What we know:
By secondary structure, this protein is an alpha+beta fold. It has helices spanning 2-13, 18-70, 117-122, 154-159; strands at residues 79-82, 88-104, 107-112, 127-131, 138-142, 148-149, 166-167, 170-171, 173-177, 190-203, 211-217, 223-229, 234-239, 255-265, 278-286. The chain folds into two domains: 52-89 and 196-286, no CATH class; 92-195, no CATH class. Helices cover 26% and strands 35% of the residues. Strands 1, 2, 3, 4, 5, 6, 9, 10, 11 and 12 form a ten-stranded antiparallel beta sheet that branches. Strands 13-14-15 form a three-stranded antiparallel beta sheet. The radius of gyration is 34 Å and the shape is elongated.
Amino acid sequence: MKKSLRSRSRRARAGFSLAELLVAVVLLGIVGGALTRLVVDQMRFFDNVQVGRSTRSAARNSMNVMLSELRMVQDSGGVTAIAADNKSITVNVPYRFGAFCGTAGGLSTVSMLPVDSATLALASYAGYGYRARLSGRYVTVASATAPAASASATTCTTTAGINTITINGRTGQVLDITPAIPATTTQGSAVMFYQSVTYSFQNSTLFPGKIGLFRSVNGGTAEELMAPFATSARFRYFQDGDDTSRTTAPALSDIRGVAMVLTTEGARKPAGRTSYAQTRMMTAIFFKNTRQ
């Protein structure tokens, strides 16, 4: 009987006291709070990284698109218009090259080098340029009349002795262009076809309230290439002899290069922050070496 009572007493004393339970709850709350804070901080960190990555991607992609065309711009007559706020620039971008054969009957005949069919399909003819013998610079001539297959190819092959060539299965063309190149121009002078391209920073349609980079060809509809950008995104300019870009643009004929200030801005505010993430990239392009 006494053994049974002692057993029951030991069983009654088994378990946790109220103080022990309170201590356990407090410790659990501290550990749980620390883990929650760690998870939240990690989520904010990854969100910040993701937003930053998207801003850098927008800047790099925009840079790559413009670099491919701005590298082709000529050092004289290449820039045709700029905005007073440095938010827009219009340039003549060559897409095909050839040689001058001769002028007759108000038409000039040129022999053009082979070019990829996709390049021709994407290009929109705005005019041509020919290299002047004395200055060594291109004289650009705007034209709404597209080049046409020449009816007198012998002007190139026989008179000027300039034959078309074939490269990788692509054959050059003998074309007639108008207005005519002065007949006094030296046969064999370089000729290029160009399209007029405008890059501009304006209100985005993809991200309302933000700035987007737009591109239009020959004054056509502007297509939004990339967004969003900060309001500080703009163009700067180099003049002959400059080693630092300037915000006050020189005369169009004196511009020798362009600096692109590509300040991109996140489409949303990162978790835990009150401001938008920004990435500032800047690159410079000098059109060509200056001729004396």
